[in-house]
Write a structure and sequence with these properties.
Blueprint (H helix, E strand, L loop, with lengths): L16 H11 L2 H14 L3 E2 L16 H9 L44 H10 L5 H12 L11 H11 L6 H11 L12 H10 L5 H12 L1 H5 L3 H8 L3 H12 L24 E6 L2 E5 L9 E2 L1 H9 L6 H41 L1 H6 L10 H8 L3 H8 L3 E4 L2 E4 L7 E3 L5 E3 H13 L9 H10 L6 H10 L5 H4 L3
Parallel strand pairs: 2-5
Antiparallel strand pairs: 1-4, 2-3, 5-6, 7-8
Length: 486
């Protein structure tokens, strides 16, 4: 086997630390950015958010990054003048806790629900049951296996295996089934069901057993597929029901809750958090005014105390001062990257949002969806000069507050289709017309996809049948047969 040696030239693109940090900051919504700034400040005492001292007094002033760099470069390297040492004390004197946050209260925007969580409610009800410790352990494991909507979507055999391998608890199918039956008696009614049918049946069985409720139970237990597929005539013939009897039974079923877990807010779920807009847009005398509130994100600068430590530590032979100066040098570099990354994030978000507003100017004046033009990431990338991936990061998880509501930035992006006049219109406009058609249709004889195509055509929109089916799915609109009512 011959061994050959040669030269090979490769072109690689590597991101600088500043670019990496900027990308991470751009992706963060304002709440996450606020928390991240707090963490960075706690980790880097060089950063400060208190107002710089002013006036003509002789006291020291906080310094900018450029002033710190001038001091840093005015003398020799600290690392060159530093001699390693051995010491019995492992904690350097400068390594102390510093709180950079002022005394003024800072608002917290991640607002959580104060209601009892879903899991806590079930555990509290479990506490009232007379169970052995072993049974309580099994029931607790089942509660922990429920989905957010209150369903148990795992088979009992898998729970038995998980109890053995993950909790070290020996159990069997019969015991797990027995504990599940107890949980299904808890509030909200329907919790612990393994599918929609069982969930609805549990709720009906908890009701006062009138003739209508009994009829509804028979339909769910014995004719659920026909009920689900809206085969009303088959149900009426099978149980010898009149149209009024079936309507009454359907009304009982319609009152039930298909997601019992949603009745109780989970105090720790993301959905309970309050949305904080990253942008605010006002319409004043025909002008669109954009602002980016900082909320509790502070203005950062370098604390003067650490500049003096670095200056004094350059030529000193004192071990403590020398080590403190090197520590400050490291933290200064980190602070420079972070402050510059924050500045670039601010500029990138503002430039992108202004480009979106300029592109959709007519829409932002009154919020009329018919004025929303087709717009994709490439359009905004072309206007700003940023990469498409950068625009995508800006748009993700960001919100804007306007005079007609609060919207995610993703809302303003949509593909386009041509109308009968050859003009390009937003797919969002077409979806709105489609939704209006379905909402106003005769529910006894709902519009089929072909009829929806015809109706849209009458309004000037050229849409294929398969496109209607796709939009229906995106809007969570069922087929015509499933929308039909008695």
């Amino acid at each position: 086997m011959d061994i050959k040696q040669g030269l090979e030239q490769k072109l690689q693109q590597k991101l600088s630390p500043l670019q990496i940090q900027t990308i991470k900051l751009i992706e963060m919504p304002v709440q996450a950015l606020e928390q991240h700034v707090r963490e960075v400040m706690n980790d880097n005492p060089v950063l400060d958010d208190t107002a710089p001292s002013g006036g003509d007094d002789d006291g020291p002033k906080d310094m900018s990054i450029s002033e710190m760099e001038d001091r840093e470069n005015s003398g020799g390297s600290m690392e060159e003048n530093y001699t390693p040492y051995q010491d019995d004390d492992p904690t350097p004197y400068y390594n102390r806790s510093i709180n950079n946050w002022g005394k003024d209260p800072r608002p917290e925007y991640n607002t959580f629900s104060v209601k009892q969580s879903f899991t806590q409610s079930l555990m509290e009800q479990l506490g009232y049951r007379n169970l052995t410790e072993h049974q309580r352990t099994v029931a607790t494991f089942i509660i922990g296996s429920l989905d957010d909507d209150g369903y148990l979507r795992r088979d009992v055999e898998s729970l038995v295996d998980d109890l053995a391998f993950r909790a070290g608890v020996e159990s069997n199918v019969e015991e797990v089934e027995a504990m599940l039956q107890i949980i299904q008696q808890f509030e909200p009614s329907g919790v612990g069901a393994r599918d929609l049918r069982e969930c609805l049946i549990i709720q009906l069985e908890d009701k006062k057993q009138s003739q209508t409720v009994k009829t509804a139970l028979r339909i769910l237990k014995d004719s659920f597929d026909d009920f689900k597929n809206r085969h009303f005539q088959k149900i009426m013939n099978r149980y010898h029901l009149s149209a009024d009897d079936l309507k009454a039974a359907m009304e009982e079923i319609r009152k039930l809750n298909p997601s019992p877990g949603g009745q109780i807010d989970d105090s720790y779920s993301d959905q309970a958090q309050q949305i904080v807009p990253d942008f605010q847009l006002e319409y004043d005398n025909g002008r669109l005014l954009l602002s980016m509130p900082r909320f509790s994100i502070p203005e950062l600068h370098v604390n003067h105390k650490y500049a003096e430590i670095m200056e004094n530590g350059k030529y000193t032979q004192d071990r403590a001062q020398k080590e403190a100066a090197i520590f400050v040098k490291q933290k200064l570099d980190s602070a420079k990257w972070f402050i510059e990354a924050l500045r670039q994030r601010q500029n990138t978000l503002e430039s992108t949002m202004r480009a979106i507003i300029e592109y959709q100017e007519e829409y932002f004046k009154d919020g009329d969806e018919s004025s929303l033009k087709p717009m994709v990431l490439k359009d905004i990338a072309g206007k700003t000069g940023f990469d498409i991936s950068t625009i995508s990061r800006v748009v993700n998880s960001k919100w804007i507050e306007t005079h007609f509501g609060i919207f995610p930035l993703k809302y303003f992006f949509s593909e386009g289709l041509e109308n009968k006049d050859g003009e390009e219109v937003s797919t969002r406009e077409i979806k709105k017309v489609l939704r209006d058609l379905v909402d106003n249709e005769d529910k006894h004889n709902p519009l089929t996809d072909d009829e929806l195509v015809d109706e849209l055509g009458k309004r000037g929109y050229k849409v294929a049948r398969r496109t209607i089916a796709k939009y229906r799915s995106q809007l969570d609109i069922a087929k015509a047969r499933l929308r039909r009512e008695l």
